[in-house]
């Protein structure tokens, strides 16, 4: 028995055009899932789609505003029309900012909370209701952050938004469990990507690496095992409400 065989499953990856979302989508496709990739423009996810297809997998791209309930409902219908169902939801949208606390505007707060937290809530409503009512189980995986708790310095709104993701993950794990829909989160450590490169000054980089026992940044491919594990009912069928750290030991470090 292959614990990680996902053949016949369909995964929807919200934010599949991002660096980490794309790497996770490629892993799911490599183990047999048909993958629906979203971006604000469908073309944003095209490079990920091409890599999946070149590796022998199957994917389609969809233009979706992750903070729009109507877009997400249409996405669900489009994917069900394509493959016949949705088994896995992976929430990966994310934006960050290093604005000092007293300078954070309402507009910036709303933007970060909308993209990082509201989008997760809406996607879990749309796809969670579908999975629960279908009665065939499912796996929802949210991408959190080491800044979700304790919060990192300089990223107040981002930290608050990712703490909300953790709370939603554990709340929904309890709510959806009777329907065998598992809800978990991955807590990545530091994986330099477009959204966080601007805040990685030399001083901050030195501080991060000094607090990471493995002494380096992570590679996107090092998140792939975690997502395949959580997506597989065979491998993680008794795992729900978990916050799985993939952080090089960052969360275990004190003094």
From TrEMBL:
SMART domains: PKS_KR
Family: Belongs to the short-chain dehydrogenases/reductases (SDR) family.
Official protein name in the record: SDR family oxidoreductase
Source organism per UniProt: Cohnella soli
Domain Ketoreductase span(s) in chain numbering: 9-190
Pfam families, per database record: adh_short_C2 (PF13561)
Keyword Oxidoreductase listed: yes
Segments crossing the lipid bilayer: none
InterPro entries referenced in this protein's UniProt entry, alphabetically: KR_dom, NAD(P)-bd_dom_sf, Sc_DH/Rdtase_CS, SDR_fam
